[in-house]
Amino acid sequence: MRYIVIVEYQVFPSLREKFFDLVRKEAATVVEIELGTLHVTSMIDRTDPNKFINLKIFEDSDAYEVHKNGEILKAFLTSADEMIIAGPQIVFEGYQMFSCDDYTLEQKSGNDLSAYFKR
User: Fold this and answer.
1) Is the dihedral of CA 61, 34, 42, 18 positive or negative?
2) Model's pTM, two decimal places?
3) E strand segments, the chain
4) Cα 62 to Cα 91, 98, 101, distances in angstroms
5) Do the Cβ atoms of 22 and 79 come closer than 8 Å?
6) Can you give the residue ranges of the ABM domain (predicted)?
7) The pLDDT of residue 96
8) Domains of the chain and any CATH numbers
9) Which residue among 11, 30, 46, 74 is least packed, with the fewest CB closer than 10 Å?
């Protein structure tokens, strides 16, 4: 059964873009290399642009354990440490019951969300 983990980060305002770039790199890498990582969606809070939420979908809880103890996540957290005020904080961990969409917002819309930071 698919396993879901949602993690929240609060980052320094001056490092938002750098964090966003790091999150994108980590997401692409884990989906490509970790076979049990099926999907990653990264989100920015509407009212607090320094708050990021990452949604990760794994094949099962064993795949999450592989990810949690893997080198990709360790490298991400080491690089992100200087950018983070608070977190990572797990806000949800459990099993997927239903999904009606297997695409990230960026993939489906065709929009490059990095332009958000250039305003």
Assistant:
1) positive
2) 0.81
3) 3-11, 37-44, 51-58, 84-95
4) 19, 20, 23
5) yes
6) 3-92
7) 85
8) 3-118 (3.30.70.100)
9) 46
